């Protein structure tokens, strides 16, 4: 045992304590993944060393043969992992193995229920990482030294996973990290060559550097050689460099867990080699679920960038647009320079053309998923649909392609499910229909009963129901799809085109003419509150409705802007009435102008309520209604 100096005991960050507790108590069913996580870290550490050594070859300290070694001791009940990667300084060990840097972690951990099954699911969303060592170990020793630091600046980190860890300075001759797991009682099955070999083959075959196990004597009789011999147990070549036909699905899946820091399988992937003017290989994955920090601005995103097989950086976010930030994977370029920096990446025109090609790859992959596996696409849409909706605004060139991937709730779909694509809608259009109709609002419950839908129900025309906060904004970027323009059914003077027959139109004009007197009376009763009053042909059951002016902001946008404290341009609704409704007939016959005014205001307020808007003067509404009720019961 070497001398330990500057020994101190430090507490884990609260979030780490919570995570450790959860990990130990809820990940009991798949314990062997600890090895995958630790090997994944060792591989990352070697990648980082290789990269830093491009500029500073002395970091290799003469030992350029990069590898991971896994060994075990049956008697001592330990499993040991050793890598000759970048290692950690004392400060790095304290931060990397004592805190969780991800923003939003504490809010995320608050969602834990204590229900082990549910929580193990949530943890997967988070990624387990280094702390998974404590699933099988009741004590973990980490001996590490940062490449480039003196042998005397080694670090010994040690913890029993219960709230604190010890850290001391030691001598460590070789750079890199050695992790010793002291197995818990009952976990000694892992101190076994055959078991370890199987786990490595299963989860870590794709790791691009050799993972070695001690070579075991073929038979009892055979003598162990004086010096330990090692053998490589994984394939040890970068997975993305292999031809597609030779990579098994399971290998793609395990590789995803490594690059995506995920716990579960991806939904889909796309592996491509591009040759020609630009040469690069990409392997892109659609995750099976959203990470907890998908909507956090600083959340990590982007691809792992390699140049000629050498790892360059994580989270290279220049290769995909923001609305595809959920995509994980690798891009390996032959054209970029090995000493490319983030700053250069942002300006390099090569990156731009790679970005548009990769974007197209992802959209094609999603199209294929939608076409071949509706169930999987539904899962995709639930997780990432909201993000994809940012697409049409961000990526004008691919607007149509993205629009084809969108899914909406609809009057023809099942209750509130976002499952209708625009192509489905168009395929179902009525004879004579040349528009895509939609209605947006606060919630599904509110829009599905909206009076705006009455005429569509009567004519059997499908209307898309848009209720996500982002929808109205999205629609301001979508004007048409497949030659059919979008029409907001709550807006303007609804023109059903050839869906209304010539007779219908003629009849509408006649009614409008016949009701000119009533229209004028309503106009003067409502005064400044409305932009216009007119006879409606949207209604069958309701007496009146408010339509939005052609150029005005929709209610959703208005509410979003108001909530963010912005000044919203004033806009007045159009009051449309249904002359065939008994209430309107009654109103038309009303001689007393005071009562006419009261009734009209009640109708106006009700129309606002039905549209999901709030009343400007709710007390006045209640007073008028009560007055009417008293008169009725008198
Ligand atoms: P992640 O791998 O997602 O970053 P982990 O919990 O697996 O999270 O690891 C935390 C951090 O600890 C790593 O990001 C790395 O900085 C450090 N680390 C873990 N294992 C090693 C290792 N073998 N060599 C060097 N650094 C390591
Ligand atoms: Mg990790």
From TrEMBL:
C: annotated segments: 560-634
Name used for this protein in its record: Chaperone protein HtpG
GO MF annotation terms: ATP binding; ATP hydrolysis activity; ATP-dependent protein folding chaperone; unfolded protein binding
Segments for region (A): 1-342
Binding positions for ATP per the UniProt entry: 37, 41, 83, 88, 102-104, 125-130, 177, 342
Residue stretches in coiled coil: none
Keyword Transmembrane carried by entry: no
Subunit structure: Homodimer.
Protein's cellular compartments: Cytoplasm
Record's function text: Molecular chaperone. Has ATPase activity.
Keywords linked to the UniProt accession: ATP-binding, Chaperone, Cytoplasm, Nucleotide-binding, Stress response
Family: Belongs to the heat shock protein 90 family.
Cellular component terms (Gene Ontology): cytoplasm
SUPFAM superfamilies, per the entry: ATPase domain of HSP90 chaperone/DNA topoisomerase II/histidine kinase (SSF55874), HSP90 C-terminal domain (SSF110942), Ribosomal protein S5 domain 2-like (SSF54211)
Domain Histidine kinase/HSP90-like ATPase: 30-187
């Amino acid at each position: 045992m070497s001398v330990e100096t500057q020994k101190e005991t430090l507490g884990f960050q609260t979030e780490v304590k919570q995570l450790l507790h959860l990990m130990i108590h809820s990940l009991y069913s798949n314990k062997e993944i600890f090895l995958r996580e630790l090997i994944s870290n060792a591989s990352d550490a070697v990648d980082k060393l290789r990269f830093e050594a491009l500029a500073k070859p002395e970091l290799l300290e003469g030992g350029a043969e990069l590898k991971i070694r896994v060994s075990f001791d049956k008697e001592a009940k330990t499993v040991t992992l050793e890598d000759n990667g970048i290692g950690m300084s004392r400060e790095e060990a304290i931060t990397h193995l004592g805190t969780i840097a991800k923003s939003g972690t504490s809010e995320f951990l608050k969602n834990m229920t204590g229900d082990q099954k549910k929580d193990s699911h949530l943890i997967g969303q988070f990624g387990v990482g280094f702390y998974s060592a404590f699933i099988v170990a009741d004590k973990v020793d980490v001996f590490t030294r940062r490449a480039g630091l003196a042998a005397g600046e080694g670090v010994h980190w040690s913890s029993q996973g219960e709230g604190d860890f010890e850290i001391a300075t030691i001598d460590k001759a070789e750079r890199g990290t050695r992790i010793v797991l002291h197995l818990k009682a009952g976990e000694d099955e892992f101190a076994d060559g055959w078991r370890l070999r199987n786990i490595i083959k299963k989860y870590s075959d794709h790791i691009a550097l050799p993972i070695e196990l001690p070579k075991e004597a073929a038979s009892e009789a055979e003598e162990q050689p004086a010096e330990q011999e090692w053998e490589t147990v994984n394939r040890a070549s970068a997975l993305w460099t292999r031809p597609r036909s030779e990579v098994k699905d399971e290998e793609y899946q395990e590789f995803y867990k490594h690059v995506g820091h995920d716990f579960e399988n991806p939904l889909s992937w796309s592996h491509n080699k591009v040759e020609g003017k630009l040469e690069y290989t990409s392997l892109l994955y659609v995750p099976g679920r959203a990470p907890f920090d998908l909507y956090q601005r600083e959340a990590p995103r982007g691809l792992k960038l390699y140049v000629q097989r050498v790892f360059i950086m994580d989270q290279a976010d220049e290769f995909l647009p923001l609305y595809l930030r959920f995509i994980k994977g690798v891009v390996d370029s032959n054209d970029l320079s090995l000493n490319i920096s983030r700053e250069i990446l942002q300006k390099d025109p090569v990156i731009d053309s790679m970005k548009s090609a990769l974007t197209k790859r992802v959209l094609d992959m999603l199209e294929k998923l939608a076409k071949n596996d509706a169930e999987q696409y539904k899962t995709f849409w639930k997780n990432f649909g909201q993000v994809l909706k940012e697409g049409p605004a961000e990526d004008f060139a691919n607007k149509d392609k993205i629009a084809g991937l969108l899914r909406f709730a609809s009057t023809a779909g099942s209750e509130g499910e976002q499952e209708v694509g625009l192509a489905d809608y168009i395929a179902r259009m009525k004879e004579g229909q040349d528009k895509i109709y939609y209605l947006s609002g606060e919630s599904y419950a509110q829009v599905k009963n909206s009076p705006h839908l009455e005429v569509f129900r009567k004519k059997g025309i499908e209307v898309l129901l848009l209720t996500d906060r982002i929808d109205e904004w999205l629609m301001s970027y979508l004007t048409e799809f497949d030659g059919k323009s979008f029409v907001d059914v709550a807006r303007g003077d609804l023109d059903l085109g050839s869906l209304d027959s010539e007779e219908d139109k003629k009849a509408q004009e006649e009614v409008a003419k016949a009701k000119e007197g009533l229209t004028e009376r309503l106009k003067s009763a409502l005064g400044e509150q409305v932009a216009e009053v007119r006879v409606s042909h949207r209604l069958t059951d309701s007496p009146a409705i408010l339509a939005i002016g052609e150029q005005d902001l929709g209610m959703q946008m208005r509410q979003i802007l108001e909530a963010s404290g912005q000044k919203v341009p004033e806009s007045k609704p159009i009051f449309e009435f249904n002359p065939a409704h008994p209430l309107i007939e009654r109103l038309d016959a009303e001689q007393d102008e005071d009562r006419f005014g009261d009734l009209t205001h009640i109708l106006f307020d009700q129309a606002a309520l039905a549209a999901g808007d709030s009343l400007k003067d709710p007390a006045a509404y209640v007073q008028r209604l009560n007055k009417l009720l008293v008169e009725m019961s008198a």
